[in-house]
Specification:
The chain has about 180 residues and is α/β, with parallel strands linked by helices. It is built from eight helices and four strands. Strands 1-2-3-4 form a four-stranded parallel β-sheet. Helix 4 links the parallel strand 2 and strand 3. The N and C termini lie far apart (about 40 Å).
Length: about 180
């Protein structure tokens, strides 16, 4: 779904699905999951889809175009950008995470991201849902395999995929999980 024609066709489908879901289950949120980058860099492009949605559904991993972590302090500003795009729609962070290894990422940064995410999402009225992506990291060979599935061999991408869990692949808690458990 890239061209304006494809997006318009999907928006029509979404409108029909929303209508039918409203009949079958009134109040159920309807939308489609888009990335933070797509929504904040190309908001106009996705307006036909958002116009037929009852919620803004987004994946949020604060990475740059090269899959390096942008820093744990960007959360509040990023959520403010989403509120502008969402207008009056509730915001569902359907996938949210931060790497703890790889390009410009550490376990301490991941814990700081989680603290900042909880604070910023609490302070952002439009946030209706925050879902953390993975409890556990992947084994290195799993991350390489998944990166290949996505057609990417970039080491930053592989490190990101393999380290967004709140505990290590061997089950030991990382500082982000310890922070959550202490709350």
């Amino acid at each position: 779904m890239q061209t304006p024609t494809e997006i318009a066709a999907f928006a029509r489908f979404l409108a029909a699905a929303r209508s039918e879901l409203a009949r079958l289950r009134p109040g159920v949120p309807v939308g489609t999951k888009l990335t933070f980058a797509a929504l904040t860099r190309q908001a106009e492009r996705w307006q036909p889809v958002l116009a037929e949605s009852s919620a803004l559904m987004v994946t949020y991993y604060p990475l740059d175009a090269g899959f390096a972590a942008r820093g744990p302090d960007v959360v509040a500003g990023d959520l403010a950008k989403l509120e502008i795009v969402a207008q009056d729609l509730p915001i569902y962070l359907l996938e949210t995470g931060y790497p703890s290894a790889g390009c410009r990422a550490t376990e301490a940064d991941q814990a700081a991201f989680l603290r900042n995410l909880l604070a910023a999402s609490t302070a952002t009225p439009g946030i209706a849902l925050v879902s953390l992506t993975w409890l556990s990291d992947m084994a290195p060979e799993e991350a390489v395999s998944l990166a290949r599935y996505y057609g990417l061999t970039d080491p930053c991408f592989t490190a990101y995929l393999g380290s967004i869990g709140l505990r290590r692949a061997d089950g030991r808690a990382k500082p982000a999980l310890e922070f959550l458990l202490e709350r």
